[in-house]
Amino acid sequence: MPALPATTAVSIGSIPLGDVLAWTAIAAFVVAMILEWLDAADPARYLAAAAWVVFGVFWLTMVPHYYLEVKSPIQTLLTLAALPLCVYAGYLLVQGRESLLLLSKAIAFMGLIYLPAETIPFVKTWLIETTARQTHFGMELMGHSPGIEEGSNGYQSRFAFDPDVTVTGRTTYIIMSCTGIGSMAIFGGLISAVKAPLKRKVAAFAIAVGVIWFLNLVRNVFIGIASPWGWFQQDILVHIATEFMGAPADRTSYIVAHNFVAQSLSIIALLGITYLVVRILPEVLDPLEEVLFILTGTEYDLSDALGEEMRADGGTSTSAASASESTAESGTSGEPDAVPASETDSER
């Protein structure tokens, strides 16, 4: 949830409207989470419903940024879709779907992870400049050592390629969205929201953060080299970037590398990381099922789709239970599989 850039932001006083909406939504989600904990389910539902609407409006304010400045078709479409989906989530809560409070809790934790990192200056500086140094090290491993200088965002995060030597004369610099903190916050929110043994939650979070950090570093190195050295300056791609996206011709390699290649692969990577997390912490299937219901209006049983060993409640699937009963009735010897200790009811 990056703050709106100054060129497109509407402000309330000196605070960008996007920041106001984001903080308001997250604060409402947190209060709703507390109300649910206090067994005030109805007030929690109504407050969470309002929070979803505000959250959707926040993403709507991001459309000009992603369309006009970032020129990202994927992010533009996602932000456009966010408002109706968030309003629908609020409607479902008002209509009594209490199970959506778990997903609301996950959003609350996501915001509590991301917003301080976005808004506390020394944390933001550390994240951006550390990511820049790590990316530069990755570039050195690939045979490029441009050095780092201050970027237009005021941080030591710009890769100082010589414009007279490179193909495009352009370079890149690290901003908050390049640090991977957004993806980390998503998994941190999902993991924090569910009830499960602390040991498994810590393991799932460590796996998610570690993989995100590594893949994000690879992504930054790829974009940081592809842009100045013109890896995608082919005529057809230049034509698309200039004629259909209104971008300068020398920005083509950056747009293709960042907006198409990296973002498309990021979606695949997030699905893969989700699968790894689910293997360790199947409880996160519950909020994910709520996401699918919002998107499709259909109830899904992901634990059944992924196999009985993925059940979050430590039990066996209906089909497995029936098979066990059938075996017992037929007099076949053999013991049913033991339930691992980490998955027993006493630890949930």
Brief rundown of the structure:
This protein is mostly helical and 348 residues long.
| Average of the residue pLDDT scores | 86
Low-confidence stretches: 1-8, 311-348
Apparent shape: globular
> Within the largest sheet, what's the order of strands?
1-2
Report the sheet with the most strands, covering strand number, pairing sense and barrel closure: 2 strands, antiparallel
> What's the Cα radius of gyration?
23 Å
Global structural class? mainly alpha
What count of helical segments does DSSP give? 13
SSE sequence, one letter per element: EEHHHHHHEEHHHHHHH
Which range does the strand content fall in? under 5%
Features:
348 residues; mainly alpha; two-stranded antiparallel sheet; 13 helices; 3% strand; disordered C terminus
Report on the structure:
- This protein has helices at residues 17-37, 41-61, 63-70, 73-94, 100-119, 121-141, 181-193, 198-229, 235-244, 252-280, 285-296, 302-306, 318-330; strands at 11-12, 15-16, 148-150, 156-159.
- It is globular and about 65 Å long.
- It has 348 residues and is mostly helical.
- The protein has a two-stranded antiparallel sheet.
- The chain contains 13 helices and four strands.
